[in-house]
Amino acid sequence: MKKAIMVDMDDVMCGGGFLGLINEFLGTNYTEEDVEGYYMQNLMPKDKQALFLDYLMSKNFYDYCHIYPYVQTVLQELQEEYEVFVGTSYVIPEREKESGIILLHKYNFLQEHFSFLNPHNYVFVGNKEILNCYAKIDDRLENLKRTRRKLLYTAYHNKHLANDYLQEQGIERVDGWLDVKTKLLQKKI
Ligand SMILES: [Mg+2]
Predict the structure, then answer these.
(1) Rounded to the nearest whole angstrom, what is the distance from the C-alpha of residue 9 to the centroid of ligand 1?
(2) Which of 6, 18, 33, 186 has its CB 3.0 to 4.6 Å from that of 136, i.e. a possible disulfide?
């Protein structure tokens, strides 16, 4: 049986959607360097936050995302050796009742751009701790529990984490998908 790996979607397979929507809504040109912390909503003036959420829910987030370089080819190569699962959360806390539409958008995006992945291996989940597998690739530290290999995918909000700090916690940083390939296909533990 192949070892299982979990791959996160947002800011790992694709990104830029949130920023694209914020810039369209505000008529701004913010870049990731302008974001402090994890939540891009912080770029939004307080009095516009509720309206922005309405705007966000009326759009397909994935129309605003770009697919990261090499993710498709590397995932196909990984599939030869591993059972690949997509582990992605979809509930917006302030819009729990309407969040089901995001699940549909995620499903359609995966079908369109990652048709080589098994749809039975899509895991739409809030708390990723329920998944226990050989390797997890995620941009959030808290999603790297219950796995032997913890691969932190570099993103705007985790760039500041020092390598010493990550090493102490047994976390390997990956800068892009070619790095993922090196870590999982050429350096096995
Ligand atoms: Mg993510």
Answers:
(1) 6
(2) 6
